[in-house]
Amino acid sequence: MKKIRIGIIGAGRIGKIHADNLLRSSQVDILAVSDLFAGPELEAWAATRNIGLVTKDSNELIHHPDIDAIFICSSTDTHVPLIQQAARAGKHIFCEKPISMDISKTEEAVAEVKQAGVKLQIGFNRRFDHNFKRVQEVVESGGIGDPHIIKITSRDPNPPHEDYIKVSGGIFMDMMIHDFDMARFVSGSEVEEVYAAGNVLINPAFAEHGDVDTAVVTLRFANGALGVIDNSRQAVYGYDQRVEVFGSKGSVTVSNDHPNTAVIATADAITSDKPLHFFLERYQAAYIEETQMFIDAILNDKCVPVSGEDGIQAERIALAAKLSSRLGRPVKVSEALELLKQSSAV
Amino acid sequence: MKKIRIGIIGAGRIGKIHADNLLRSSQVDILAVSDLFAGPELEAWAATRNIGLVTKDSNELIHHPDIDAIFICSSTDTHVPLIQQAARAGKHIFCEKPISMDISKTEEAVAEVKQAGVKLQIGFNRRFDHNFKRVQEVVESGGIGDPHIIKITSRDPNPPHEDYIKVSGGIFMDMMIHDFDMARFVSGSEVEEVYAAGNVLINPAFAEHGDVDTAVVTLRFANGALGVIDNSRQAVYGYDQRVEVFGSKGSVTVSNDHPNTAVIATADAITSDKPLHFFLERYQAAYIEETQMFIDAILNDKCVPVSGEDGIQAERIALAAKLSSRLGRPVKVSEALELLKQSSAV
Amino acid sequence: MKKIRIGIIGAGRIGKIHADNLLRSSQVDILAVSDLFAGPELEAWAATRNIGLVTKDSNELIHHPDIDAIFICSSTDTHVPLIQQAARAGKHIFCEKPISMDISKTEEAVAEVKQAGVKLQIGFNRRFDHNFKRVQEVVESGGIGDPHIIKITSRDPNPPHEDYIKVSGGIFMDMMIHDFDMARFVSGSEVEEVYAAGNVLINPAFAEHGDVDTAVVTLRFANGALGVIDNSRQAVYGYDQRVEVFGSKGSVTVSNDHPNTAVIATADAITSDKPLHFFLERYQAAYIEETQMFIDAILNDKCVPVSGEDGIQAERIALAAKLSSRLGRPVKVSEALELLKQSSAV
Amino acid sequence: MKKIRIGIIGAGRIGKIHADNLLRSSQVDILAVSDLFAGPELEAWAATRNIGLVTKDSNELIHHPDIDAIFICSSTDTHVPLIQQAARAGKHIFCEKPISMDISKTEEAVAEVKQAGVKLQIGFNRRFDHNFKRVQEVVESGGIGDPHIIKITSRDPNPPHEDYIKVSGGIFMDMMIHDFDMARFVSGSEVEEVYAAGNVLINPAFAEHGDVDTAVVTLRFANGALGVIDNSRQAVYGYDQRVEVFGSKGSVTVSNDHPNTAVIATADAITSDKPLHFFLERYQAAYIEETQMFIDAILNDKCVPVSGEDGIQAERIALAAKLSSRLGRPVKVSEALELLKQSSAV
Description:
4 copies of one chain form a homotetramer. By secondary structure, chain A is of the alpha/beta class. Chain A is about 40% helix and about 25% strand.
């Protein structure tokens, strides 16, 4: 039985999740993990998982002769150089989203991957969620006819720490980028134009960093459909992740997942438990499936389910949204990059 | 346009509801109302409704030459003689449930109605509820195949006053009789045997009057199906009226009606409003429809939707359940009457 | 007991519905009905309702000495002159929405009403719907904190006939105007800016008349909240009328009403019946309540629940949306009227 | 880190599931597996899991010096002797339900376990289901007051093969035994009396083996509550596993789990996907948790969550139900064993 040998760059929360998910497969060995802050703690973690090499130097992984594939789970600013190095070294790559905050750089990295002929999968984990997959299947099968209106709700239970706000890249690039990918995924069409309305309603710290915490974005798709995404950095009732596609022959709607189906009726009200709290709970199975499909793509030389091009498109839309929010007008996705160059203010 | 002229005997809550519902029809005139406690208040009520005659004497209505149909909304012990008198006077009859506490008397009354050739409809209002009608339609259309299991939940929000407990006839004859009729209605089959388990869990007053306040009754139907009804005199969250029919090709289930569809999500829980509080709210439209169908049956000489025979059957099942609860064993519906005669203790 | 005497101008579908709803009250007499096409059919209809006067001339109603209040249910282009005449004649007025397609005219009419000191209620029936009322109550009571995002879905089961498309005033003024009013009602805040994206996806006839059949509109509210309304002229599954308000302490969401709660489970799927088909079914009780509150406002000299100012605001937002859709940019509600004057093209 | 070393007796479907679930824990080693039909296939299966010993002889496991705990996943008739042997050998035991078809034997086995001082956990996996755990928590916390009515629905998607029907022990001992345990679990009270009504509605093969395929059983609990369980061997829409506890202060109800939350609305109906198909899908996480808690009980010397006494009680109730079904009368759980001895016909 062939095995894929993996190196993981970045041993933060998501890196460790991917590691444990990969270890569920009998066709995976994790040979090495690198992290800038590698130390005894990470070594202990690696030991219980039989991961032989722990290092601060990602180069050791990239140039490791036995490693087939690299998981890039380090901070966003490191993604592009790491992709380029890994591609040149002939390694397959799984990279967290977004590839970068700079589309030109993202495009260069993806081009390098293409030239190297290795596989690159982007970590848009939500595509693997049981609910959103079902939406996509129904739409693709024609079950609701031609899509007319796509609605995506995506709200976090808690805003990030202020330290993160500074470097997040803003709500459109950091948070809504998942929804831009979802919009493309469920509609089967490209987004051509966006109009973004945002506001700071939760924490003034967002304003201090030129960001918003609440946003409503209108989308125009190539197939004529219209869409809307709403984001909030703080839904006190928990992670709110819903999608609706309305079309000429009907609609398909998915609601949140809950920890149980219990309904409690008392003299006061009818009550049920809040949705699964956040992405770790909600997307637990989706994270497993995305890594399994990556391994499967390598083992059986299939297309990866989320390509570098998917990463580029989502970033383009996010950039257009960011510009729209600043300029107060709709922005075409195709004009975003040019507009950015013209506008030093953005 | 032909009009049906009505007399209403018994101007309590349900009598007044029927009156107002009848007045919605342009084909109905209410000529008279009688009540043992008729007085200025009832006269004022009647005046605003253009009801000419208010009397303490039900005979004035029964023998009124212009009255076509009598609504019997007085206490249960008066039903049988009033039905007999009205039938002999050639009036059509709408009678509240149960016809009586004594099946032999009920049978005599129904026989008299048959002989007189007038129409008699029994007030099993729940057959006209939008939810239960849909269950019956689905079952009758074969949508779930042959019925295998019938489940009926019926719980009141509050127990009745102790004064009423004394004269109610007990939970099986007073409350569960609706569910026995529902069981026949949705299954399309006769109940052949019952086993009743009851207990006093809410108010010891029920025990003092030889009654129970909580009951679970198993049913065996002629078509082989099994059923179960559960009753409670006190569901603190409101009126609980649900039905499920499970069959060889699937199931159909109806849940409660709510005052609105609002779902409120907060940091504590997901909450919605309690069901419609009690029968007046829940069966408002059903009460209207049952009287309209009675009027329609007279005007167009159709069968009434709930016959005297339906009244008899429900009483027979209720008696069997009462005996089963006392004897601690299953009782055949066909043996109930004979068993009652043998048993002076019941 | 005091009675309000009503005259109804316009005996189309909605005029007749209001008439029958008014007749449910013992405090209302309908003295007259006028319609341009009055004839034997309307006379027969009026006769069964004891309405004495049937005429083609609305002036007969407006100047009828015994009439207290006028219902204006005729075509939109007649609303302004009829309001002005009725106000001058000292009659209270219930007028269907929108007051007119021309805000200047609407403002003149409302000013005239104010001067005359009569009551004017606008027919935004949805404010009286059990679901939307509950949303408004929850928001107003602070149950979800400060509103951050308001989402309104409003889709018709079938597009109107092409004859109507021509004269409808367009989707924003004809259909979404209800949602603009709803946005103000549930948020408790004024809409300051809109961005409208529309498309023709259902029937090219809309394009021929400069209209769209599918639209997504972003709203900015004075209190900082953001909103989005989506409209479609054709939801094949039936009337889709949902609202969600998301705030700092939670959210409140209402879904559609259904004819029953039946859930059918078979070997294929779990199925339930479609929502109530269209506005007549969905808003049946809301129509009753809006007329009852109008009567109550007159009888007890209370404020009407939907004022002329509410009518003006909704029209202003609709105009801004129409302009936004044409201009392809966000439009402030405050600039819409000026913009319209500048732009002969709109 | 201490590890528990396991031997698994019986490598059928459930044995293999337990093995894989156990292997998720870093504190478990599986040393051996035995099966009467052990062969190359099982050896290959064991090899990929690093299980060193594969044998046909369960004695090799029971007397293996390094094995701490035995999983008994072989056929029901082997449970009692294996428990006795394992207990005498000082091994902790996890045994699938039911312990046996013969309560006297079950009692002897449990007594032997007690004497040996080893741990014995019975495989009532449903206690670990997220929904049923929530019901139990709500009831135990007093959230619904005193339990009055317990309702359990348990229906399989497909009947078993006729070969299995012969040896299953009948619906009460084979299938409803889970529900008897659930009744005790969620009510926090012992079942004192049962009345079982059964019928053959799905497959005459059940009748040929003295069994039924559809059953409704009434329960009386020590705390006064009443209960009802309904079982069907064939719910065409999938595995139907629901529980409701109704009490003095409210109710808690759990419905089925579904593969996704998608709701599809079309011109025909509103549709969603069927429940998770069968126990492997529905109880996947519950199976994992029951083995984890068993391991935890051994490692930390805690009580097991489902004891031998729990196994005995469920069997007693099942026996009473079987007798009730045959005798056509309610049977006290305390009299069942005596009744069985008297009755050669059962």
